[in-house]
Structures are given as C-alpha cells and as structure tokens.
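Hi R.,

Here's the chain you asked about this morning:
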Amino acid sequence: NFVYILKKDDLIVYIGRTQNGKGRPSSHFAKRWFNKIDILPSSKQNIVNDECLMIHLHQPKYNKIKSGNIKYASECKICTKIKEINKNIDWIFNKK
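And the predicted structure, written out as tokens:
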C-alpha cells in the first residue's frame, strides 16, 4: 500500500494510490508528463485519507480535488469540513 507522487521538474502534477503494488503507478509511465516519482508507504486503513490530504495540500494539475473512496474508509477531514461549510452557505443563502 502506498501513495505515489508524480513530479515534473519538482512540481507535483499527480498524486495517486495503489494497494496492488506497482501496476497502477507504472500505467502512468507512457504518458510522459512527469519525470520523477516519489513513493510514500501507507496503511490499508489510511491510504484513502493520505492520498486525499496530499491532493488538498498540493492541488496537482492532473488530479481532481477529491480522492476516490474505498468502502469503510473514513472521509478526509478537509472534505468533511468543506461539505459542512457548503451546507451552511446553502442554508444561509436559501434562508430568505
């Protein structure tokens, strides 16, 4: 289990995760939009949150802001707060 970070000239362009070894990150090699890969170990329980927090922190060019979910994984704390803020904003502006 690890989170991988793809970089182009020290700029983070994509963050992903894999639980099946090298298959997922190696699928990116043909794209040639990066020239360096960093690999960070993670646990099965934390891999979704680790990936999502890294995406929020670095906002890579080729990522969506939200990480994919794995059943039974808890939601990222930042995603939870964003949903709470959006809910409050909706409530404020719909309350006329």
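Helices lie at 23-26, 47-58, 77-94.

Let me know if you need anything else.
M.
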